[in-house]
Amino acid sequence: MIDIDLTPFGFTPTENLAYGALLDLGPSSGYAVAKKLSIARANAYQALNGLVAKGAAVTTADQPRKFRSERPDAILARVIDIEAQKLDALEAQVQTSGGQDGSAVVLLQGKRALLDIALRTLAREPEEITCIGAADLLAALGPAWRRRALDSRVSSVWLIGDDPGDLPVPTRGGIDLTKSVELFGGPVFLLLAGDVAVIARVEAADLSGYWTSDMTIIGATRGLAAHLAR
Predict the structure, then answer these.
(1) Which residue from 21, 26, 30, 57 lies 20 to 30 Å from 90 (Cα-Cα)?
(2) Residue 78: closest CA among 44, 113, 53
(3) Which pTM value belongs to this model?
(4) Structural domain total, the chain
């Protein structure tokens, strides 16, 4: 059976199994899914109806009724949209909650997490930001750069490595990759925005980084950014 785990996104374990069964079988009746999964027919129909309600399957016009799985990439798009809406709502609540005492350091794992928090930080920060990164990451943040430019917000950006010639944001200058390797062991991404910073070492198969509001770490990061941009 095709291994796709939907359970972290609001699907029950049985719905997840039923979705995998539909991917393997193609359009199928509840009886066929129950037989493949060795579960009661009532449980199979409950799971299949749950998939339909959550947009992961549709019913066909066949008699008896059959169920067809939606494409996995369509479900991914739906999950991304739903999760983005939840994050937007939470971010709006956080912004109206007022300043908070204390500091925090949050581990970031994976490029998706890094890009999402960087995009939101760039969109939210009204004052000048400083950003240092490789071309692929700077390009991936294109919507945020364009939004900041339209709002006349200052973005001080330095490029690590070779200039690809078509970045969505003007850069203040280039930084030799060897300087980043000497300090961080690989290509680095730094974003300084008001009272928060994002720091990550980014390589093809690995990313280790942090979001932080710790002023000691932010101060040290500003010093490293100034050293790299020198």
Answers:
(1) 57
(2) 53
(3) 0.73
(4) 2
pLDDT, the chain, mean: 89
Average pLDDT over residues 164-176: 88
User: Within 13 Å and on the Cβ side, how many CA atoms surround 41?
Assistant: 5
pLDDT in tens, 112-158: 889 999 999 998 899 999 999 999 899 999 999 999 999 999 999 99
The verdict on 64 and 125 lying in the same domain is: no
| 123 and 225 together in one domain | yes
Tell me, yes or no, whether 222 lies in a domain: yes
Burial of 115 (0-12, 13-18, 19+ CB in 10 A): middle
Other C-beta atoms closer than 10 Å to the C-beta of 82 total 14
d(CA 145, CA 139): 9
180 beta partners: none
* pLDDT of 190 above 90: yes
The answer on pLDDT for 98 being more than 70 is no
Cα 167 from Cα 177, distance rounded (Å): 18
To which residue do tokens 């009886």 refer? 31
Tokens 């067809």 correspond to 68
